[in-house]
Design a protein that fits this description.
- This protein is an alpha/beta fold and 366 residues long.
- The chain has 13 helices and ten strands.
- α10 crosses α11.
- InterPro entries: HeH/LEM_domain (IPR025856), LRR_dom_sf (IPR032675), RU2A (IPR044640), SAP_dom_sf (IPR036361).
- Keywords: Leucine-rich repeat, Nucleus, Repeat.
């Protein structure tokens, strides 16, 4: 295996990366460890160690100019504890297809606050619980994680989770524990199994974790943690779902109350007949310039009303006179057909071939 000796390092090509960074290429060189990088005098922006045999990212000198470090397709299991001080201006870190399995193994990355692009695809740590939330919560300048853009909602949830007691207890236990094989599930599931007097089932733990992920604030996460510590299952009311349901029910009741009033006002006929005479009279009044003309128009309108009333009375009198003529039984003025109809109504037998005078006499006698 070739080592990173001074002659080997100086023999490697130096080119420009797609981001126009001065980059040195150590690709596919079977390098077993990092050493002697100070010979480059910190004059490069990017280092490419893709497809080598590096078991760890250690023994790094202080490279203040380094902005990109590509370490894909190695066997890296651990990272240098003071990674952020050795690479203070690191913006792009690619650790795809390595052997980082636990949250503890990536803790040094959390202090690299200048990171903007980070990839840990192909590592076992990506399948751990809260992996993405922990990284996003710590790295405020990070824009892309595992080639997936970080959304604003994801940023808010991660910051809220970072303030919760679950995250603080988890990170403190990871930092204090000495075993390197302990995974996030083991640390996370321990309080759930032994909390209080109750043993939570697998379904309970899944439900609690889903509630934590759906929580919109750090206060909600703290409340869930308190229930778990007491050995109690957090109720759904902690998420505020019952309050939302009650608000929706109240809104529906208010809408149902408003609907009949709205329909009543829509179906109620407008008193147009009452308003029309006023509008005509007002129009006649406003059309005239003097007060006397206004009074005349009102008098005329009242006279027209009286004339209408008199006409109605005359028509009613004529109807009454017609009814009187019928009731007085002036049969002589009626036709033969009407006389026969009257006889049928009164139940009088109609003689055959009877003339009008005979029918009149029969009706008068009846």
């Amino acid at each position: 295996m070739p080592r990173l000796t001074a002659p080997f390092i100086l023999s490697r090509p130096i080119t420009y990366s797609p981001l126009l960074l001065r980059e040195i290429d150590f690709r596919s060189s079977s390098i077993p460890s990092l050493e002697n990088l100070l010979i480059l005098r910190d004059q490069l922006d990017s280092y490419d160690f893709t497809d080598n045999d590096l078991p760890s990212l250690t023994n790094l000198p202080r490279l203040t100019r380094c902005k990109e470090m590509n370490l894909s397709s190695n066997i890296i299991e651990t990272l240098q504890s003071d990674l952020s001080s050795r690479l203070p201006n690191l913006e792009i870190l690619t650790l795809t297809s390595n052997s980082l399995k636990t949250i503890r193994s990536i803790l040094p990355i959390l202090s690299c606050t200048s990171l903007r692009y980070l990839s840990l695809l192909g590592n076992g740590v990506t399948g751990k619980k809260y992996y993405r939330m922990i990284i996003i919560g710590h790295l405020k300048n990070l824009k892309v994680l595992d080639y997936k853009k970080i959304t604003s909602s994801e940023r808010e949830k991660s910051s809220a989770f970072l303030k919760s007691s679950i995250c603080t207890d988890l990170l403190s236990s990871l930092k204090s524990s000495s075993s390197t094989s302990e995974t996030l599930e083991e640390v996370d599931s321990a309080p759930l199994v032994t909390a209080g007097t109750r043993s939570f089932t697998v379904d309970d733990k899944k439900l609690i974790k889903s509630m934590i992920e759906q929580a919109k604030s750090a206060e909600v996460i703290d409340v869930i943690q308190e229930y778990v510590k007491r050995g109690e299952m957090p109720p759904r009311s902690v998420m505020g779902e019952e309050e939302k349901e009650e608000e929706e029910k109240e809104q529906l009741i208010e809408e149902e109350k408003e609907e009949p009033t709205a329909t009543a006002t829509a179906t109620a006929p407008a008193p147009a007949s009452k308003k029309r005479p006023r509008s005509t009279s007002n129009a006649s009044v406003t059309s005239d310039t003097s007060k006397g003309s206004g009074k005349r128009s009102r008098a005329n309108s009242s006279a027209s009303k009286d004339s209408k009333v008199s006409k109605k009375s005359k028509t009613s009198k004529t109807v009454e006179t017609e009814e009187k003529t019928v009731t007085e039984e002036n049969f002589a003025k009626l036709t033969v057909a009407k006389l026969k109809d009257l006889m049928k109504e009164k139940g009088i037998e109609i003689p055959k071939k009877a003339k009008k005078a005979e029918l009149v006499k029969i009706l008068e006698e009846s």
